[in-house]
Amino acid sequence: MKLKIAVLPGDGIGPEIMKQGVAVVNAIADKFNHEVEFVYALCGADAIDKVGDPFPDDTFTVCKNADAVLFAAVGDPKYDNNPTAKVRPEQGLLAMRKKLGLFANIRPVQTFKCLVHKSPLKDEIVSGADFICIRELTGGMYFGEKYQDDDKAYDTNMYTRPEVERILKVAFEYAMRRRKHLTVVDKANVLASSRLWRQVAKEMEASYPEVTTDYMFVDNAAMRMLVEPTFFDVMVTENTFGDILTDEGSCISGSMGLLPSASTGESTPVFEPVHGSWPQAAGKNIANPLAQILSAAMMFEYFGLKEEGSLIRKAVDASLDACVRTPEIQVEGGAAYGTSEVGQWIVDYLQRL
Fold first, then answer.
1. From 123, 219, 317, 348, active-site residue
2. Is 12 exposed, middle or buried (0-12, 13-18, 19+ CB in 10 A)?
3. 302-351 residue pLDDT tens
4. Which domains does the chain possess?
């Protein structure tokens, strides 16, 4: 297969983890005789500093013309700590999602047996947790009408029926491919937008009779994720709730550096780790590259290349079992491995198979 991949390293630890992700893609491409072309582009604070725009038109063109986007992270303290900044790195991420029509964010949440002890939850609670959070990505408060002055501010949480139907369709179809259990998360007891979500979901249930569909208020869902994460199979929710819940879910595994994600929709899909840019660690060779590498696995699987994705997952599991880990998940007394060493070990493992 020929693949043209847009590569957006972004800010902070982004370039370091992206280097490892690209190396793994190359190793898989060599093994399976795929032809991969990488096209690098600017985004985030790096793009602001260089061209004044966090998602410049040239980057959009590169992404639009690619088969997939591998994205790392954006964010920089000089913008985070300046509340008056008119241009911010995160605006580039929102612009990418909107311009590419990426309305569905897919975030798997899973545990690794050898790392259960690293989870903030007790072993008996978290063991076996394996679910997918599906977040609507281009509607709601993040994109609704906004206003702010010195005395008043508001954000509009608006959804239309077509927006709700298309994300629910994605969720129902994921549930059909998994354990046939879908949880719709909303705040229908308070919010009109949530009542529309619940109304549409109930109407769509009949088209998926094999799926057990339940409904949960977002505050209850947040609690349930902490006390019984194994309850969930597929969870679907709106943009703001999904942003919060998926970050909460990413901690269940014991490290945000372990979990990948995909954003899909009308145009080029984007594959990225769920963590941020961690600028304090930039250049120190301590960032965990596994989420970036697993994002590459999701990318191959998206194109139906299941064996390729499975092999990457096998290599990641092998690295964890061999205690080839970055500091935040290394066992006490374990050898010191950095970002580049973990990535190289996985590449070497793939080449030996």
1. 219
2. buried
3. 999 999 999 999 999 999 999 999 998 998 889 999 999 999 999 999 99
4. 1-102+267-353 (3.40.718.10), 104-264 (3.40.718.10)
